[in-house]
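C-alpha cells in:
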C-alpha cells in the first residue's frame, strides 16, 4: 500500500461544528502526523492545520467528511512524498 504526505487546512466559522470535527480527526488519528490550531478571536474563527501520512483514499475520505460539516471549510495540499508500507 502506498501512502502520501498531505496537509489539510481547515477554517471553522461555526464553532458548534468543533466537537464533530474533533471526533472526525480522532477517528483518523492513526494517520495524523501533527496538528496546529489557532483561535482567531477577533474574527470568531478557528484555523487548523493537520499533517497526514495516509493512503490517497483515506485522505480523500477525511477531507470529504471535514468539508461536509456546517460552517467548516477544508482544503488539501498533497506533497510528492510517497511511501510503500
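Residues out:
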Amino acid at each position: 500500500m502506498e501512502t502520501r504526505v498531505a496537509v489539510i487546512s481547515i477554517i471553522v466559522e461555526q464553532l458548534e461544528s468543533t466537537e464533530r470535527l474533533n471526533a472526525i480527526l480522532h477517528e483518523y488519528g492513526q494517520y495524523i502526523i501533527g496538528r496546529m490550531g489557532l483561535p482567531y478571536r477577533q474574527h470568531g474563527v478557528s484555523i487548523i492545520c493537520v499533517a497526514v501520512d495516509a493512503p490517497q483514499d483515506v485522505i480523500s475520505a477525511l477531507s470529504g467528511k471535514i468539508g461536509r460539516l456546517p460552517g467548516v471549510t477544508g482544503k488539501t495540499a498533497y506533497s510528492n512524498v510517497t511511501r510503500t508500507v
